[in-house]
């Protein structure tokens, strides 16, 4: 895929996911060209897949430019960013190219960072899956997240999810999830977390790297920005434990631990699909082996929210051992805007 194709594909994704500003920003590069100089040359000659299926270079660039604005180091560029009115496309492109020329070292460093949005609205899927699991097992939960980044979604039990049959989570939470329900909502049961850990190849500090994490939020999505800001505040008060390691190596170690009297919930949201095929195969084998050792007193569960090539959104699947049965829990928007929930039949 050429760099132009990658940018155009990301433009369509931004349009579909409700960010006309980011779509316009990236469309400017596809339409008018990359900036002259080393940054444009680096993007044009980037090795491998630069699309959202690979290195996500368009979103790396968008995040870097947003970082300049959030850090207050480029007022000229910031004058065209939300909440200011949407500018003319060519004017935005010219301002972006000028900012890149002024801050080449910053852009070059930021292009090394893959987007890590920590989309906490995906926590609605985690809350519902964990609640259904706890209602069935009547056991406290041990959490293990693969691809945890800054670990914001390790705190999903501290978020509040609005639903028609009763809300989930603490009512005083600063993170309030208000998705569109496209299905009947289940009645809440409640669950308790006794231990939580995550893993990431490049974990982020939710305090020291707050602005970097926020830079990957599309600047015209203010509700999303505020929601993740609130989740960062919670993470500052309840620091998540995220280990820097290969996810499958860490999973092997985590699955070897004894969690008697607790249900071990391994979960991942839009992360597994980016693992290499060999890593996925090894992870599946490790989960199956651990599942064979699971008991009614120490069950193992896997909650997976991933793209499946079907759409709309991502599919949510819960696998529970020792029986090893898969439960289809419906579909969820990638950014948590809507829920199409299917209650499991255990």
Automatic annotation (TrEMBL):
Pfam families: DUF2332 (PF10094). InterPro entries: UCP012608 (IPR011200). It comes from the Bacteria. This is DUF2332 domain-containing protein. It comes from Celeribacter neptunius. The lineage of its organism: Bacteria, Pseudomonadati, Pseudomonadota, Alphaproteobacteria, Rhodobacterales.
């Amino acid at each position: 895929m050429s760099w132009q194709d990658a940018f155009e594909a990301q433009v369509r994704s931004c349009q579909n996911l409700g960010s006309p500003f980011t779509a316009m920003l990236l469309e400017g590069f596809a339409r008018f060209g990359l900036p002259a100089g080393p940054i444009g040359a680096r993007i044009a000659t980037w090795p491998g897949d630069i699309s959202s299926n690979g290195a996500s270079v368009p979103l790396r660039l968008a995040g870097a430019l947003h970082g300049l604005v959030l850090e207050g180091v480029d007022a000229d560029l910031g004058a065209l960013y939300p909440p200011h009115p949407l500018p003319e496309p060519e004017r935005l492109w010219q301002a972006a190219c000028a900012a890149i020329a002024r801050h080449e070292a910053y852009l070059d460093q930021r292009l090394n960072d893959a987007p890590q949005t920590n989309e906490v609205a995906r926590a609605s899927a985690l809350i519902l899956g964990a609640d259904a699991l706890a209602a069935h097992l009547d056991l406290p939960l041990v959490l293990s997240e693969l691809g945890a980044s800054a670990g914001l979604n390790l705190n999903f039990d501290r978020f509040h999810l609005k639903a028609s049959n009763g809300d989930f989570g603490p009512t005083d939470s600063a993170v309030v999830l208000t998705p569109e329900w496209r299905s009947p909502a289940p009645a809440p049961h409640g669950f308790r977390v006794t231990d939580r850990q995550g893993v990431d190849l490049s974990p982020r500090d939710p305090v020291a790297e707050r602005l970097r994490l926020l830079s990957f939020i599309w600047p015209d999505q203010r509700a999303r920005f505020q929601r993740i800001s609130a989740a960062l505040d919670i993470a500052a008060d309840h620091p998540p434990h995220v280990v820097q390691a290969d996810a499958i190596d860490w999973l092997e170690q985590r699955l070897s631990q004894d969690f008697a009297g607790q249900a071990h919930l391994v979960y991942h949201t839009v992360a597994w699909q980016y693992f290499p095929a060999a890593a996925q195969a090894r992870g599946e084998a490790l989960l199956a082996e651990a599942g064979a050792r699971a008991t009614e007193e120490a069950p193992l569960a896997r909650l997976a929210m991933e793209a499946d090539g079907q759409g709309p959104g991502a599919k949510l699947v819960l696998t529970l051992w020792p029986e090893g049965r898969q439960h289809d829990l419906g579909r969820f928007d990638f950014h948590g805007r809507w829920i199409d929930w299917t209650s499991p039949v255990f």
